[in-house]
Design brief:
By secondary structure, this protein is α+β, with helices and mostly antiparallel strands. It folds into two domains: about 5-135, 2-Layer Sandwich (Fructose-1,6-Bisphosphatase, Chain A, domain 1), CATH 3.30.540; about 150-270, 3-Layer(aba) Sandwich (D-Maltodextrin-Binding Protein, domain 2), CATH 3.40.190.80. It has helices at about 5-25, 45-60, 90-95, 165-175, 185-195, 210-220, 250-270; strands spanning about 35, 40, 65-70, 70-75, 80-90, 100-110, 110-120, 125-130, 135, 140, 155, 180, 200-205, 225, 240-245. The longest helix has 22 residues, at about 250-270. The chain starts with a helix and ends with a helix. Bound molecules: D-MYO-inositol-1-phosphate and calcium ion (2 copies). D-MYO-inositol-1-phosphate binds near residues 184 and 203.
Length: about 270
């Protein structure tokens, strides 16, 4: 069995190097464009970061496949695949809001086994490998203690075009949780569940590169990851709920109440 030390080190070093590049590029003009839906932005920095990451991964793991958000899938022949978000939180980055990051996951034979998330403005590196726990800046991290949603700080995310899907859930959790945050970087939101800052995070329609590293790091920190109805989470599937484990069932229940309200509203309004 090949060790996970090498892929983990490669993920961490590459994420940190790409993050340093983002930090430098963030001081210049960024040339942001919408890729598709309103609010789905890409800048020259996203592309430069992905180019650097691909170069480093190809040099360190020749023959591995790479799935990058900006340039899509590059095939490989080793059973290994890297899943890369070269800049998660592009809108934050563009506005100088410090919550953005680089996310790199290592997959072997379809299983995510290692991952790293680097937040350049915080200079914080989150990492994890299957069965080896999770760390921030090399120190072990663990999920939080709260056992009730009423005591929980929870986080969510959505793009402008996706708000309707999540609006009812956002409103309902704002009533029942201690606090709701919407921070604009799904990978970092997951890292903040892993280190106990957030007690729960949910979102709809994320892509595999948003969550591959973060979901592993949450699990390795002792947390629970599923779809919002509690069913098994499949990467790239309709929804994700990541929690400290203790509030998981209650979060599923509160999100189900919101889903019910959303369905009822749609029925009444006939939309
Ligand atoms: C986005 C961020 C945001 C989430 C969006 C993602 P991007 O990724 O993670 O928090 O709400 O759904 O697409 O476009 O900044 O890499
Ligand atoms: Ca992303
Ligand atoms: Ca991105």
């Amino acid at each position: 069995m090949q060790t996970l030390a090498d892929p983990l080190r490669t993920a961490v070093e590459t994420a940190r190097e790409a993050g340093a590049l983002l930090r430098r590029l963030g001081t210049g003009p960024l040339d942001a464009r919408e890729k598709g839906a309103r609010g789905d932005l890409v800048t020259a920095a996203d592309r430069a970061s992905e180019r650097l990451i691909v170069e480093r991964l190809q040099a360190a793991f020749p023959g591995s496949a790479i799935l990058g958000e900006e340039d899509g899938e590059r095939a490989g022949d080793t059973g290994e695949r890297w899943i890369v978000d070269p800049l998660d939180g592009t809108t934050n980055y563009l506005h100088g809001y410090p919550l953005y990051c680089v996310s790199i996951a290592y997959e072997r034979d379809g299983d995510v086994l290692a991952g790293a998330i680097y937040a350049p403005a915080l200079d914080a590196t989150f990492a994890g490998a299957r069965g080896r726990g999770a760390t921030c800046d090399g120190k072990p991290i663990a999920v939080s203690q709260p056992e009730a949603v009423a005591d929980a700080m929870v986080c969510t995310g959505f793009k402008p075009a996706d708000y309707d899907r999540n609006g009812e859930h956002f409103a309902h959790l704002s009533r029942v949780a201690q606090a709701v945050r919407r921070d604009g970087s799904a990978a970092l939101d997951l890292a903040f569940v892993a280190n106990g800052t957030f007690d729960a995070f949910w979102e709809f329609d994320l892509k595999i590169w948003d969550v591959a590293a973060g979901a592993l790091i949450v699990r390795e920190a002792g947390g629970t990851v599923s779809a919002i109805d509690g069913s098994v989470y499949a990467p790239g599937a309709g929804s994700i709920l990541a929690t400290n484990g203790r509030v998981h069932t209650e979060m599923c229940a509160e999100l189900a109440i919101a889903s019910g309200a959303a369905r009822l509203r749609a029925e009444i309004l006939g939309s």
